[in-house]
UniProtKB/TrEMBL annotation:
Family per record: Belongs to the bacterial solute-binding protein SsuA/TauA family.
Alphabetical list of PANTHER family matching this protein: ALIPHATIC SULFONATES-BINDING PROTEIN-RELATED (PTHR30024), TAURINE-BINDING PERIPLASMIC PROTEIN (PTHR30024:SF47)
Localization annotation: Periplasm
Organism: Bacillus aquiflavi
Keyword Cell membrane: no
Protein name (record): ABC transporter substrate-binding protein
One GO location term (cellular component): periplasmic space
Amino acid sequence: MPKLRIAEVTRSIFYAPQYVAIEKGFFKDEGLEVELTTTWGGDKTMTALLSDGTDIALVGSETSIYVYAQGANDPVINFASLAQTDGTFLVSREKNDNFSWEQLKGKTFLGQRKGGMPQMVGEFVLKKNGINPQSDLKLIQNVDFANISSAFASGTGDFVQLFEPTASLFEQEGVGYIVASFGNESGQLPYTTFMAKESYINENEEIIEKFTRAIYNAQKWVASSSTKEISKAIHSYFEDTELEVIEIVVDRYKNQGSFASNPLISEENWNHLQHIMAESGELPKKIHYKTLVDNKFAKKVMNE
């Protein structure tokens, strides 16, 4: 087997099963040698995939829709689910034991970058809870992803939408307090999936099958293992984060069902993703489920 190149959109505890697959030898069991690169951003990840700079990308499914809508001759196909909810949390500057979404009205909300999936989910959840993002609060969306947490820490915003482990670290430091989960509020969707170009999948079906089996074995291991065991297994990927914080984050993601329990991508979740994109005005056109999702490998390894 050749070395398999994987590009992940960011380095996140959200992707714990992927790191488990490496650390626990599930890829090695399949005869696969993997090379993991963090490409930091959906646009860069997709560019790497389309230019053959990587074989497999771990990124939000919305990127495959954007590529297809632009008329790609070799579409990008989603073949295995990894994270099945949004991974962000609503953090309040003030401690609040009786939070309600109404409390955001008239306040300043520091959201995620416009056009990204976290921002789309954020606006979807606000609307679901009776908040008009454009008129009921002051919405800030022009801060670069890498600077959102520092902007909030320096005094910008009454509320902020943050990924882990920053949200938990802010709680520990008294900078802010988690009051709601966007993942719980928005429901299941193919938030982050493994995908590859259609031509690569067709030419390397054995590799894709082995890869999917390794991910499924890691997903089963995560589902049956304790928070401490999972955190210890992935700690080397987050050396700057204390094990105690990783445990808090893993527990939070595990309890809200963020880690997909199997690689299957359901049609219901796919349609929900497009509904959220349409609500935010970011869906270029509706793409049929079977056009960009191939569950063949997931079904095979799950039925073994």
